[in-house]
Amino acid sequence: MSGDIRKKSVSTQAIHAGEGRRGSSTGSVPDLVMSSTFIVDEEVSFSANNLETDAPFVYTRWGNPTNGQLEQKLATLENAEACIALATGMAATTAVMLGTLNQGDHLIISNTNYPGTAEFARGSLPRFGISVTPVDTSDVENIRAALRTETRMIWLETPSNPLLQLADIAAVANVAKEHGALLAVDSTFATPIATRPLELGADLVMHSLTKYIGGHGDAMGGAVCGSNALIAPLRTEALIHQGAVISPFNAWLIMRGMATLPMRMRGHQENALAVAEYLQNHPNVELVRYPGLDSHPQHDLANKQMQNFSGIVSFRTANAKQIAERMMSELDVIHYAVSLGHHRSLIYLLQTDDLVSTSYRLEGAALDKYRDIAGDGLFRFSVGLEDAADLCADLDRVL
Ligand SMILES: *Cc1c(COP(=O)(O)O)cnc(C)c1O
Question: Which domain holds residue 253?
Answer without folding.
Answer: 5-258
